[in-house]
Write a structure and sequence with these properties.
By secondary structure, the protein is mainly α. It is built from twelve helices and no strands.
């Protein structure tokens, strides 16, 4: 029997067949199983991080300065200093790196739901163990830098849509990166290069699937915004479904 890495290498060399309906149906059925539980976890996790971030910022800048900083006139992008923008971008990037293991846990939740295995809250934080955390952190950091880099270069053309497309393209090319780290135990660089290679075998189909996901999440925002937290798990069900349909799991 071929090992997981042998199967993946074969897929990289020879490609694979994939049907839109099969992947979408698997993702949607999986999403229905985790939507409520995952949505509540994301909501609680978000509230915790927002409160923690506000406390840190308030103590860093001072409460009076912080209140002055968040006034509408000071939040005008044209008035923000380069130092503040760099600090903001750096902080946002590091935050996304630190919370990536949490989102990896949601993908694992999708797997547990699919095989009808009981899932516990503690399992969401499984990937904060150092062996996983360092790879997820590095992968997220590299992807964020690439996304912002390409987006910034294309934004300089004066056509913002190009920057958005560049950022979306980087995201789609790396949609298998986290599943490869948590399910196949790839390191960050290996996961990124393998994800890009595999996605490029079926780029239009995978791009279409992710566009559907983003539209579904966007729809959730219009339902009193809180709907966002309960449509977001669809993304992680889709990550799981794509990995399952392309690479699969050993019995």
């Amino acid at each position: 029997m071929k090992s997981n890495k042998d199967r993946i290498q074969n897929l990289k060399n020879n490609g694979y067949s994939l049907e839109f309906e099969t992947v979408f149906n698997l993702a949607f059925e999986n999403y229905k199983k985790i939507a409520l539980y995952a949505g509540l976890l994301i909501l609680v996790f978000s509230v915790f991080f927002i409160i923690a971030a506000l406390i840190i910022i308030a103590f860093t800048y001072g409460l009076d300065n912080f209140q002055q900083l968040i006034t509408p006139e000071n939040l005008d992008s044209k008035k923000l200093s380069d130092d503040f923008l760099l600090t903001y971008i750096g902080g946002a990037t590091l935050l996304s790196c630190f919370i990536s293991p949490f989102f990896a846990g949601l993908i694992k939740m999708a797997h547990f739901a699919q095989i009808d295995e009981e899932f516990h809250v503690a399992d969401v934080f499984e990937f904060y163990r150092f062996s996983y955390f360092k790879e997820l952190f590095l992968a997220t950091l590299i992807i964020s830098i690439l996304s912002m880099g390409f987006s910034s270069i294309l934004d300089a053309t004066g056509i913002p849509m190009l920057g958005f497309i560049a950022s979306l393209t980087v995201s789609v090319l790396n949609l298998l990166t986290i599943p490869l780290i948590i399910f196949s135990k790839f390191n960050a660089i290996e996961a990124i290069t393998t994800s890009v290679n595999l996605v490029l075998k079926q780029p239009l189909l995978l791009f279409a699937l992710m566009v559907i996901v983003y539209l579904a999440i966007l729809t959730g925002i219009f339902f009193f915004f809180i709907g966002f937290f309960f449509t977001l798990p669809f993304m992680y069900s889709m990550y799981y479904a794509i990995y399952s349909c392309i690479i699969g799991f050993e019995e």
